[in-house]
Amino acid sequence: MQIYWTKINSIIEETPEVKTYMLDCPEGFTWEEGSHTHFAFEGFNAGDKPNRSLIRHMSITTLPHENSIGITTRIREECSEFKQILRNMEVGHEVAIFKTHSNVPLKRENKNVYLLSSGVGLATFRPLVLDYFERADNVNQIHSLNIDSSRDYLFTNIFESTPDKKFTSQFVDNRKDYYEEVKNLAGDKDGLFYVVGSDEFLSQNIEVLREQGVKPEQIMLDKHEQQLPAFLSSDMPI
């Protein structure tokens, strides 16, 4: 396993609780849209076993041509040890990234794509949307639906409806409106549904989609292949 040590080159305050940490691209480090990485602090591998409190699984919110690795995360007043350390980090501080992989690259199958996310989960979809804007080949259209009760919506300069690019974006601040809209979108029996958020959020979305007749193979989750059956078991009632 190769560990890349790199430095924070800028910190962007997206909202009062959400920051994006931009990291220098180490030589030889590559990734694609929808990638996640393991993001860690100094000392995480100092002992016999990795110190898991110093490691988090994070989505990369940028594309390679942006020349920085973006990590977007919410840091609340009350937060974990990891987030406390991150909150105090500054430009020039060093972090580690390793085990980078994409579970949710943009599928180009001449279908409609629906991006369903909660809060900062939208960060996973930012590079997919940018990739689509640059090359729309074999994607009919994309619709993004995000729920965020804080109403401090993320990346609104990118996630705004652009009819000429066949892209629509929708933000809601409550569960009732969100799931009503998911039901409406699930009327597309041939669409591809990407879902990003907490495990509970994934399960609730999958239940709604399956009740509307969406098949497991139409649902894309940011999970390793061996984790998918726990969410998408085919014997689930529809």
Beta-strand residue percentage: 25-35%
Low-confidence stretches: none
Main pleated sheet: 6 strands, antiparallel
Q: Rg to the nearest angstrom?
A: 18 Å
What is the tally of beta strands? 11
Biggest sheet strand order reads 4-3-6-1-2-5
Please state the oligomeric state of the protein chains shown: single chain
Tell me about this structure:
Residues 1-107 form the FAD-binding FR-type domain. This is Dihydropteridine reductase. InterPro entries: FAD-bd_FR_type (IPR017927), FNR_nucleotide-bd (IPR039261), Riboflavin_synthase-like_b-brl (IPR017938). It is built from five helices and eleven strands; from the N terminus they run E-E-E-E-E-H-E-E-H-E-E-H-E-H-E-H. The strands form two sheets. The protein has a six-stranded antiparallel β-sheet, with no helix packed on it. The model has no long low-confidence stretch (mean pLDDT 94). It has helices at 81-87, 122-134, 175-185, 199-211, 228-232, and strands spanning 4-13, 18-23, 35-40, 55-59, 69-74, 94-102, 111-118, 139-147, 167-172, 192-196, 219-221. The chain has two domains: 4-102, Elongation Factor Tu (Ef-tu), domain 3; 111-232, Rossmann fold, CATH 3.40.50. It is α/β, with parallel strands linked by helices and 238 residues long.
